[in-house]
Amino acid sequence: MKRKLAIAAACLLLAGCGAGNGEIRVSGGKPDESLKVEEVLKEKDDRITSAVAVFVQEDLLVVVEVRPLSRFSKAKIEEELTKKMEKAFPDQTVTLSADRKIYWETDKLDELEEEDKLHKKVETIKSLSKEET
Amino acid sequence: MDRQAYSQMEQQVTPKVPLGLNLMKAFLTGGIICAIGEGVMYFYMYFFDFTERTAGNPTVATMIFIAMLLTGFGKYKRIAQFGGAGSAVPVTGFGNAMISAAIEHRTEGYVLGVGGNMFKLAGSVIVFGVFSAFVVALIKTILVKFGVVGW
Amino acid sequence: MVARGVIRFGSRPAIRAVAVAAGPTENKHSPFSLQFDRLYDSDLCGQKTNEQAHRKLIEDACGLALNKAGKTISDADYLVCGDLVNEMTPSNFAAATTGLPYVGLFSACATSTSALAYAALLSEAGASTLVLAGAASHHNAIERQFRYPIEYGFQKPQNAQWTVTAAGIAAVTPHEEGYPSIRQATIGRVVDYGLTDPLNMGAAMAPAAFDTFRRHLEAAGAEPEDYDVIITGDLGAIGTQLFRNMASESGYTVDGDRWRDAGKEFYGEDPSFFAGASGAGCSAAVYFSDVYNRMMEGEYRRALLMATGALLSPLSFQQGESIPCTCHAIELVMGEGESR
Questions:
Q1: Contact between residue C285 and residue C245 where contact means Cβ atoms under 8 Å apart
Q2: Residue C147 sits in the same domain as residue C33
Q3: Matching Pfam families, A to Z (chain C) (predicted)?
Q4: The whole model's pTM is what?
Q5: Considering only CB atoms, which residues of chain B are within 8 Å of chain C?
Q6: Hey, CA dihedral for C333, C80, C40, B67, is it positive or negative?
Q7: What is the CATH number of the domain that holds C104?
Q8: Which residue from A17, C83, C161, C284 has the least number of CB within 10 angstroms?
Q9: Are the beta carbons of C241 and B104 separated by less than 8 Å?
Q10: pLDDT tens by residue, chain C, 340 residues
Q11: Contact of C232 with C278, CB cutoff 8 Å
Q12: Would A121 be classed as within a structural domain?
């Protein structure tokens, strides 16, 4: 029993430490835009473990994963980053979220090829992120 | 034997509540219930269009539903005997308080029995929940007004 | 008058027969279940509500006691019993079913012995040839009234007690050879040591038990050794310990087997019932099965039954009142039981 518990605890610990590979992935934009996104996200934050940014026409979707203990101030982080992004990309409509659901959905965007479907999906994501309760 | 001597003797004989052990058990039970809740929430987020913010409501409903089944099958009181506050504090405890009262008073009819007594135990949770929310909101409003904190 | 509150019965009324009806928990967990006369598989006993089941238990016990005495309901003169439900409705309904002249008694869990005392008085006064006396309780019906709903998750402490589902009825007749007879009764005073925890009733009741114990022994001029058994009602593990401590501090010799407690033994000291059993049916069920049978077999020749009761109501303890307690004692003797 004790042994099993110890093994379970070790697994949990390892799994916990393994999560969050700290990568920032940007797609659909020009190379200089990608760099710019990375700069904005990196500049400040050790609170962010990973991020995905997608450029779709005039939309810019940015999703970030926040470190567990920083999740309490998730709303604040979102607000700050949105402001910065909007400053960096004044021509794009920025949608920034730290929500896991939005993260998953945005992450999946790459798989979609057709312009039509992509656009529709982006609209869904945007409306999802605006839902209040 | 006078009262004082007796109450001393009574305290010696009555077994002490194993506080440390109970805390551990409560932590474990509460933790497991919350982990299940987290799993349910991920389920709603993964398979349906719920975000972290919106998945809370269906999750709470599901947890109360599970608590209802467990209460009806007579399992929840066993969990509670082991877990104590760990099973009472999460929303499942609220569900249990409500449903156990409803089952209990079924024999007095639906209006006076079930309806009238359903919130006999859970009612105080609602009253003090609403009241403390009001107090906290009041404090925060005042603090924001004086510029101590932001929203 | 022997002493204040002590009644010596010159005519020595006899307990002609006893019967116990009990529920499924008792069937499964009580070591006394083999001696019970009727056991049900369901808490509802085939009725619609727990309160009806409660009443059914009393009716059954009455019928069985009469049967075992070889009598019918028309031979009985009175029904004296009580329970813990508000206004004692189960007993009242059962009395309506039997159609007997009825007195409802409330001494909480001490009702079994107070009913015996009352029945013995009726018999002593020559007012009756057969009195049915007893007490009952039903776990679900009592818990909902005094504590929480049955299915409510609530962590019970180790000193909590479990209300039994059982009814015990004795048929009391004028003296007859070959049956245990009632020699002395001590009516308890209400003792309040200021304890307030309704989940630790054994501790609240122990001083009452000791008070009655001492008064009874003084009036009888006896020592604990003169009795084959001194059995308290439902003090439970903690209350029993406290009662024994009080007795030994006052100079009585406390020795193992002679000192029993119905509540402590009722579920075989199973830890899942915490400190033991409680409820009006607890003492009645043990007195009217195990103790009675051992007297009939001649193992016990002189027994002291001391049922204890905590006279609280849900209202009184929520208002922060202490728990007043009482204890009524009955002394049974077998055969001549010459005053030793």
A1: no
A2: yes
A3: SpoVAD
A4: 0.88
A5: 1, 3, 6-7, 9-10, 13-15, 17, 22, 71-72, 74, 76-77, 79-81, 83-85, 87-88, 93, 96-97, 99-101, 103-105, 107, 121
A6: negative
A7: 3.40.47.40
A8: A17
A9: no
A10: 688 999 999 999 999 999 999 999 999 999 999 999 999 999 999 999 999 999 999 999 999 999 999 999 999 999 999 999 999 999 999 999 999 999 999 999 999 999 999 999 999 999 999 999 999 999 999 999 998 899 998 899 999 999 999 999 999 999 999 999 999 999 999 999 999 999 999 999 999 999 999 999 999 999 999 999 999 999 999 999 999 999 999 999 998 789 999 999 999 999 999 999 999 999 999 999 999 999 999 999 999 999 999 999 999 989 999 999 999 999 999 976 554 4
A11: no
A12: yes
Residues of chain B positioned with their CB less than 8 A from the CB of C150: 77, 100, 103-104
The answer to whether residues C109 and C193 belong to one domain is: no
How far apart CA C293 and CA B102 sit, in angstroms, is 43
CA distance C292 to C307: 15
Is beta strand C162-163 parallel, antiparallel or unpaired with respect to C325-333?
unpaired
Per the listing, tokens 């309506």 go with C96
Q: Identify whether A6 is part of a domain.
A: no
Six-digit token string for B29: 């039970």
Beta strands A93-97 and C166-173 are unpaired
Residue B88 identity: A
Rg (alpha carbons) of chain C, rounded to whole number: 18
- Are the beta carbons of C149 and B74 separated by less than 8 Å? no
Q: Tell me the residue type at A40.
A: V
**Looking at the structure, do residues C188 and C123 belong to the same domain, yes or no?**
no
Domain around A100: 21-130
